[in-house]
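Review this:
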Amino acid sequence: MIGRDPKDPFSEIFKMFGMSFPMEGFGGPMTRTMFQMGTAGLEISGKGYMPLTIIEGDESIKIIALIPGVNKSDIVINAVGDTLELRAKKAPLAIMESEKIIYSEVAEDEEIYKTIKLPAHVKEGKSSAKFENGILTIALPKTEKSLRTGIDIE
């Protein structure tokens, strides 16, 4: 298993970045993930396959999540302070009783989620989200106290 075997060359890399990936090879399903980035104040944990991109600007934070095979009505987004929770429920693969899966790269998790501790507090009521072609884009404006402002020197 990648990241768990002391002889695995990736073990040291995962330790160095504080990552723990209990996976069954690169193509296997991720069961739980935890990632911490101390300098940006970012922590991510969750279950299932949901790749993320997080972009921080001076006034907002943008989250882009890939959630293929999910309906918009099956996605739940909650934001409180500096924490964002994403949940999605997928329908199980539709196979007939006379069929069996002999190979699949599709994650079998029916519910996937991510909890993200953001690098700043956000205005929950002013946030927006868009879901199109399996791509969820969330815009989170930062609160006034989180905005980067210059300080004049007297």
Remarks:
- The first strand starts at residue 33 and ends at 37.
- The helical segments are 10-16.
